[in-house]
Design brief:
single chain; 180 residues; mainly alpha; 3-stranded mixed beta sheet; 3 strands; elongated
């Protein structure tokens, strides 16, 4: 296997464990707290991760391995599973974990020669399987970081003189600027 395949599997395995830890270790209020109006909470990020695990990445890998010429785009604003106050984080995490296990098994079948396979993305045009694997790993990391950033917002405002050290993560940039 190539470094890309191995690294993608490693990222997806580690991130799956991070999602499980967040869902099991944090209270619902913290997981549902959006960092700012219009931004996703940690639980919404996990819901999106489960949605893309179910309908996007593995499906695209399978399509490319099967030689299908194209695949559809995914619009999280219209195709996502709703997350509500009563949504159980552990149920979402368990769904994600089961789907992730299937994805990891699928990726174990990919070989270096497959990385140059192409298909047409409905919005982006031609893409290779190698590009898709890079997107999958980066996308997964991005949303774990986004979820952790959302959780951080409950703590940053009360860090006193240390608040300025969180400037890159503080959604209330005016407060960070004042503490510099």
């Amino acid at each position: 296997m190539t470094d890309l395949i191995d690294r993608t599997i490693a990222i997806l395995r580690v991130d799956g464990e991070r999602w499980q830890a967040l869902a099991a270790g944090l209270d619902r209020e913290l997981l549902l707290r959006p960092p700012a109006p219009g931004e996703w909470s940690a639980l919404q990020c996990l819901g999106h991760a489960a949605d893309t695990e179910a309908a996007v990445f593995a499906a695209r890998v399978r399509a490319m391995l099967a030689g299908r010429p194209a695949f559809a785009a995914f619009d999280p604003d219209t195709e996502s599973t709703p997350i509500a106050a009563g949504t159980d984080p552990m149920v979402v995490a368990a769904s994600h974990a089961a789907l992730r296990a299937e994805s990891l098994a699928l990726l174990a079948t990919v070989n270096e020669a497959d990385l140059v396979r192409t298909a047409r993305h409905a919005e982006l045009g031609p893409v290779t399987l190698g590009e898709l694997l890079n997107e999958w790993a980066a996308h997964d990391l991005m949303h774990v970081v986004q979820a952790e950033r959302a959780v951080m917002q409950a703590f940053i405002p009360d860090t006193g003189p240390w608040r300025r050290y969180f400037a890159d993560h503080d959604v209330d940039s005016s407060a960070t600027a004042e503490s510099r």
